[in-house]
Amino acid sequence: MILKFKTSADVPSSEITPEDVYRSRREFMKAVGVGAMGAVATVLPGGNAWAQDPFAAAKKSPLSVDEKVDPRTAYDRITTYNNYYEFTIDKEGVYKLSGGLKTKPWTVKVDGLVNKPGNYGVEDLVNFNQVEERVYRHRCVEKWSMAIPWIGVSLSEVLKKIQPQPGAKFIEFTTAERPGEMPGLGSGVLPWPYVEGLRMDEAMHPLTMMVVGLYGKVLPNQNGAPLRVHIPWKYGFKSGKSIVRIRLTDRQPRTTWADANPPAYGFYANVNPMVDRPWNQSRERRLPSPFENRQTQIFNGYADQVASLYSGMDLAKFY
Using CA atoms, how far apart are residues 11 and 66, in angstroms rounded to an integer? Predict the structure, then answer.
């Protein structure tokens, strides 16, 4: 079968989320105690008490897609319609239940096949002075999608700091498991903690992003604060949230959804309209539309940049 890949530039410009008021990054530095003492942080929806828009001055990355964020899917929508089962399976209820998650201080354990293992703070892994805004498409296996202005750096920059060893072939991310702060853990809907993973070449691709913010603001709890990963050509479930462990390994890690429901959630999770999961993926619903009003693009529209990673692979088998 010959596949014709559309490029990122083939998508019409009609989809992001405007914010009118931005403050300088300096305000953030004050709020977290780097600048003048006594600065007051603003409490975000979901309870993340860092500065409200610390990354407002972040430059826009050339890796961004040329799409306008739809004003109808503005910040309020992006932060009140979320998949985060550790809190609840109700997408419109996550933000109401996530306020109890304490995100500061936060420690990420780095181990496995790295030269610099240890316990890292978020600011040790991500250089806040180098973060940038990237407007990326987000596509859920449940067939809804958005264009979201994430703030962060390429995951490859983080990996350079921890120095993967030559034998490292995969990277594994583990999400926080805090029953006292995450009421959904008691539901038993999935085995906890939540684990996801990538092949190292996927992780090192410049599009793969370590996220610390959203829309010029610090990342809210319901969106995966204080640290998450986003891989724009894959379905959203690959994007581990509230990461507490990064492990490098020579073997493909077992991942939560691939274990729980293999026909629907394969390890690779590449957006592919020709592979049912098991429901048809040929169309998607671009929020806020209630209808499946768009054709699904192979690799979520990033084929020109990532298709070479899977050259020679049977994408119906390695889905």
Answer: 8
Q: Determine contact, residues 114/158, Cβ cutoff 8 Å.
A: no
**pLDDT score, position 77:** 86
Specify the pLDDT at position 74: 81
For residue 80, the SS3 value is coil
- The reported pLDDT for the residue numbered 73 is 63
- Report the candidate in 99, 58, 104, 77 with the shortest Cα–Cα distance to residue 227: 104
Neighbours of 37 (CB within 10 A): 6
E strands along the chain, which residues? 59-60, 107-112, 118-121, 132-139, 144-154, 170-175, 195-199, 209-214, 217-218, 228-230, 243-249, 283-286, 294-295
Domain boundaries, the chain: 8-310
Q: Give CA angle at 117 (114, 122), nearest 5°.
A: 115
Please say whether the dihedral angle defined by the alpha carbons of residues 134, 154, 53 and 26, taken in this order, is positive or negative.
Answer: negative
Name the stretches of the chain with pLDDT < 70: 1-52, 72-73
Sign for the pseudo-dihedral over CA of 56, 59, 61, 64: positive
- Say how many residues make up the chain: 319
- pLDDT for position 27: 37
Task: Give the residue from 88, 75, 25 showing the smallest Cα distance to 45.
Answer: 75
What is the rounded distance in angstroms from the CA atom of residue 94 to the CA atom of residue 303?
Answer: 32
Phi and psi at 170, nearest 5°, equal: -140, 155
Which CATH number is 8-310's, of 1.25.40.10, 3.40.50.170, 3.90.420.10, 3.30.930.10?
A: 3.90.420.10
pLDDT at 164: 98
